[in-house]
Amino acid sequence: MCGIVGYIGHRETAKVLIEGLKRLEYRGYDSAGIAIFHQGKVEIRRKEGKLSKLEELIGGETFDGKVGIGHTRWATHGRPSDENAHPHKAGRVAVVHNGIIENYLSLKEILKSKGHVFTSETDTEIISHLIDEFAQEGYSPLEAVRIALDQIKGSYALGILFEGDEECLIAARKESPLVIGLGDKEYFIASDVPPVLPYTRDFIFMDDGEVALLSSKGVKVFNTKGEEVSKEPKRVNWNSLMAEKGGYKHFMLKEIFEQPRAVIDTIRGRLSKEKGDAVLEGVRFAPTVLENMRRINLIACGTSYHAALVGKFLIEAFCRIPVDADIGSEFRYRNPIIGKNDLFVAISQSGETADTLAALREARRKGATTLAICNVVESSLAREADHVIYTHAGPEIGVASTKTFSTQLVILFLLALRMGRALGVLSCEGGKTLIEELVRIPHLMEEMLKTSSQVAKIARKYLQARDFLYLGRGINYPIALEGALKLKEISYVHAEGYPAGEMKHGPIALIDREMPVVVLATQNDVYEKVISNIEEVKAREGKIIALASTSDREIVQKVDDVIFIPETLPSLTPILLTIPLQLLAYYTADFKGTDVDQPRNLAKSVTVE
Ligand code: AGP
Predict the structure, then answer these.
(1) Distance 372 CA to ligand 1 centre (A)
(2) Ligand 1: distance of its center to the CA of 601 in Å?
(3) Burial (0-12, 13-18, 19+ Cβ within 10 Å), 151
(4) Residue 233 has pLDDT above 70, yes or no
(5) What pLDDT score does 165 carry?
(6) pLDDT in tens, 543-579
(7) Helix axis angle, 573-592 relative to 403-422, nearest 10°?
(8) CATH code for the structural domain at 446-592
(9) 302 in ligand 1 pocket by Cβ < 6 Å?
């Protein structure tokens, strides 16, 4: 939610900020703005709408300053408008903010009584006023920020400028992500690494409560007590090209096509073929943890939650341990029963999803062993969990998750394999069979991508449909949910994912000749039952798009359209099924002309509750 950038250095500052914001637009895009020095003054340009509107506003204007901050917004407090767009400036102080200030109303009243006048409906504006209040009392910029932050309750990543001090860019972080890029006599702040990748791959990852002072001479980081701390820079192995479209019309399409590569990168170095086992460098459970493990909780939101649902099937099948899959925002509010003999696995692309993070904290508080499955290195989730496994999907810019989903499925498969072997439930031979099939998956994914033009035709055929139903059973059911979510979020077509056997208890009432029903009908132990469900839909004149195993030629007679899925183990089939469903959503959205990479009302990383 919201992206912030900041820069101090020798380049054209406005350009660095705008280019940086373009790489953060996935975090929010209902308004954007920059604050930048020009002839000693802090100039602000901000505009409702996408970043292109801000670019139009700036036009050919130039600024001579070498320091600036920028923001792309996903509204929480106050509707999208020019006035509510960041940066917010009070007195000498300009601020960009990602997060939520919980006590902003009471602080606003206090500040108003001291004569401060507010011009926006945002919670952020109080930050600039509060800091300015202390700066006016004679505190240095760093002190003024620290004292102000002491009074603020909530979450923030902040970039702060002080008019009259061009050698000062202040950054602060609490519960919202913020990284510092270390270039050659130039320094950057950003909500995520992609904006900084064109300039450097060396980063400092700020911790909660830290405040940083960036000047042309370098970066100093201070802890909550105001003591300078030494932070080890880390090198990120993503490069700047990875965050570009590379000739594809949309990031989403590029990321769909990157999936075989992403899976190869995720598997690399993690298989022991001789032992029929997985090697998970980030997981070193003490033997007692495995011995005593009674239950596993998989927690996530959105698409990552669908991966968790698949994970439940995998872990229960390979390890014979009961698994609960739960939604991050629900978990902690029901006083969950979780204890020190439980394993808690949080799954998140960004590693910054507020609900997933809060659930992890609750599980830690209750003594569970915690494991994070993340894509973003050094994200909050990765740093707070006891153990971490990274999906090596590379940066995902499209708001709709694609390659991070398939790599999450792969990691869950590897985790289930590792634990199944460690617990002695899976034999070495059993493990070897699983590995042999897993290494074929990237090749089979390539085969699935070849269905792209066929899927585009199907999307065109059903373009006028107002509703879709997605049906699956067993381990394919979560993929039905994921297919429906993809369609909803980027094409704005209503879609429901449903367990096929449950259809007769309600959704069957929706079926008529206008209703396309996507049925996941690959060969497995519930295949015959899915065929019965197809007959039920047919009897009500529903239109059926089936995803069926390549060998199943008979199904052609029973359905309207069929996409064939190469044969593999039922436990790996979800990875293959996902691809045509992603493509179906993509082409439907593209033909409708929606904004595929930045669908309305959404943000990639939901860092608020
Ligand atoms: C997926 O397409 C969505 N963008 C969304 O549901 C997402 O999966 C969810 O917000 C969780 O994000 P995370 O994986 O970064 O935690």
Answers:
(1) 15
(2) 13
(3) middle
(4) yes
(5) 94
(6) 999 999 999 999 999 999 999 999 999 999 999 999 9
(7) 170
(8) 3.40.50.10490
(9) yes
Domain extent listing, the chain: 2-244, 265-439, 446-592
Instruction: Check if 353 has its Cβ closer than 6 Å to any atom of ligand 1.
Output: yes
Q: How far is the CA of 248 from the centre of ligand 1 (A)?
A: 22
Of the candidates 324, 320, 322, the residue with the CA atom closest to the CA atom of residue 423: 320
- Provide the pLDDT for residue 121: 92
Catalytic, out of 2, 301, 319, 374:
2
Q: Do domains 265-439 and 446-592 have the same CATH topology?
A: yes
- Which of 191, 384, 401 has most ligand 1 atoms within 8 Å of CB, for mutation? 401
137 burial class (0-12, 13-18, 19+ CB within 10 angstroms)? Answer: exposed
CATH C-level class of 265-439: alpha beta
pLDDT of residue 601: 84
Amino acid at 45: R
**Residue owning the nearest CA to atom 16 of ligand 1:** 348
Start-to-end CA span in the chain (Å): 11
pTM for the full predicted model: 0.82
Give domain 2-244's CATH architecture: 4-Layer Sandwich (3.60)
Residues 319-376: pLDDT tens digits?
999 999 999 999 888 888 888 889 999 999 999 999 999 999 999 999 999 999 999 8
Contact residues for 458 (Cβ-Cβ < 8 A; gap 6+): 545, 561, 563, 584
Cα separation, 200 vs 195, in Å, equals: 10
